[in-house]
Amino acid sequence: MPIANLQQAAQQIANFLNGVIRLGGLRLKYRISASAPPEGAEIDGAAQILNVEFVGHDAPMLTQRGGELLRSLEHIAIQILRLDIREHDLVSFDALNFKALRAQEIQLSAETAAEKVRQSGMPFSFPPSNSRERRMLHLAFKNMEDVESGSLGEGQERYLVVYPKGKTHLPAPVPAMPSRSSYGDRGNRSDRGGRGDRPRGGGHDRRD
Fold it and tell me: What is the pLDDT, as a whole number, of residue 190?
């Protein structure tokens, strides 16, 4: 469902951020704007989403440790707006173009993993990640004809596997632990329940 009142939601986020910046003594400024949902976002009936862009001397602090602080602020804002766990894409926080750079990294990781699968003929497992990044990977593999993707595991341990096309019966290797540079909140509620990480019409989701 879309946010019923974008202006009211933006004001709630602004009130939250003003308090955080003031109490934290942070040298940050932000801009809240509305835009069309990004490609691959699963938002029923939403014509616009809210974007929050940070700038200022302390902006690099938000992107350290894989963007943990940025993601945490975004997650709190989602809770303040009382959005459903499947509606996290209605709000997007960013700083220093962090998300766009991370999207490029994910695309490169997908291409590298696909090549490993082609050469070995065996599945490749990514480290556990949040539902947003898994969905981005699913979208990347959706455009590759000779491989397909699926998600395994539950909650914080849910991860994506790349299979040779038509060979999802092959056992998936145990994934490596995620690095600190991985963008995502391992405790994000959007990961609990394993819903919403696969794009509609693409990807294979195994629950065994």
Answer: 41
CA atoms within 13 A on the CB side of 92: 19
Residue 58 buriedness (CB in 10 A; 0-12 / 13-18 / 19+): middle
The span from the CA of 21 to the CA of 64, in Å, is: 17
User: What does the DSSP assignment read for 122-140?
Assistant: S-EEPPP--HHHHHHHHHH
Cβ distance 144 to 193 under 8 Å? no
Beta bridge partner(s), residue 31: 53
What is the C-alpha separation between 109 and 165, in angstroms, rounded? 18
pLDDT tens, residue by residue, 63-122: 998 899 999 999 999 999 998 767 778 899 999 999 999 999 999 999 999 999 999 999
